């Protein structure tokens, strides 16, 4: 009976370690931050894979109002997480995570998914124009003028699939076009308040057919940040996490397991 009891305890410990990685060392929480013209559902295929592999996940509803205010919002989310964090940003969300992690004590890694990694003082507009290749501006719909004069920007729904999600099934891309969330023009022009990638290890992945941010810009930012690993996905659009969720998940998990 005593041997049976020992075996039962051992089996229980093995099962617990299989779920959490180790009872004393829980897996880091993956915090996902979407970018402009998207929402948290853009991470769904990545979330499914991360959850299957045992990672706690939070997909933040990025306000898309301004880098500093959005960064403060994400920083508040991070403060509520009790484990180490891998902070992941897509597109404009890269600017947000670069600010949000600047004062965070529990962020162990940054992952930039077709994302801006601005230096302090740089804006998304600055970086978009650093190298030729972005075709975003001509695809924007007439802006929505807000009280105070700021403008909400959308991509024209008819142009959205080709501009934003060319390698996503057409029916899915059309739904994304309808559900897209706007960003203010001021947010895209706002100078970055901080650059957390200067102190926190970073990983980069992007598509080499990105039409929003020139691939050459994405590669240049990765090199400047001394990226631990950079993946350029052949033929992938700006929403590489939707068209190639396996590759994106794999890189996030590499960042999560790195020392």
UniProtKB/TrEMBL annotation:
Keyword ATP-binding: no
Residues making up the signal peptide according to the UniProt record: 1-23
Keyword Hydrolase tagged: yes
Top-level taxon of the source organism: Bacteria
Classification via Pfam families: Abhydrolase_6 (PF12697)
Coiled-coil features, chain-numbered ranges: none
InterPro entries in the cross-refs: AB_hydrolase_1, AB_hydrolase_fold, Sec-Metab_Biosynth_Hydrolase
Keyword entries, A-Z: Hydrolase, Plasmid, Signal
Single GO term (MF): hydrolase activity
Residues annotated as domain AB hydrolase-1: 30-248
PANTHER family registered for this protein in UniProt: AB HYDROLASE-1 DOMAIN-CONTAINING PROTEIN-RELATED (PTHR37017), ESTERASE_LIPASE_THIOESTERASE DOMAIN-CONTAINING PROTEIN (PTHR37017:SF11)
Name this protein carries in UniProt: Alpha/beta hydrolase
């Amino acid at each position: 009976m005593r041997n049976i009891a020992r075996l039962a305890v051992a089996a229980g410990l093995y099962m617990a370690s299989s779920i959490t990685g180790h009872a004393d060392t829980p897996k880091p929480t993956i915090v996902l931050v979407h970018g402009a013209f998207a929402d948290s559902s853009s991470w769904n295929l990545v979330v499914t894979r991360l959850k299957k592999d045992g990672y706690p996940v939070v997909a933040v509803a990025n306000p898309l109002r301004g880098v500093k205010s959005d960064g403060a919002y994400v920083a508040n989310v991070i403060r509520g997480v009790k484990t180490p964090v891998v902070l992941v940003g897509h597109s404009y969300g890269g600017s947000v995570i670069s600010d949000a992690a600047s004062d965070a004590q529990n962020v162990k890694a940054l992952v930039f998914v077709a994302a801006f990694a601005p230096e302090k003082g740089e804006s998304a507009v600055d970086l978009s124009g650093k190298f030729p290749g972005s075709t975003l501006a001509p695809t924007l719909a007439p802006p929505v003028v807000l009280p105070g004069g700021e403008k909400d920007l959308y991509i024209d729904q008819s142009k959205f699939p080709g501009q934003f999600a060319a390698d996503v099934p057409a029916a899915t891309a059309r739904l994304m076009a309808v559900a897209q969330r706007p960003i203010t023009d001021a947010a895209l022009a706002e100078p970055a308040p901080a650059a957390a990638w200067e102190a926190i290890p970073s990983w980069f992945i992007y598509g080499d057919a990105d039409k929003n941010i020139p691939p050459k810009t994405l590669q240049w930012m990765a090199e400047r940040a001394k990226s631990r690993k950079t993946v350029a996905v052949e033929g992938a659009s700006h929403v590489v996490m939707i068209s190639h969720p396996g590759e994106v998940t794999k890189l996030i998990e590499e960042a999560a397991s790195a020392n």
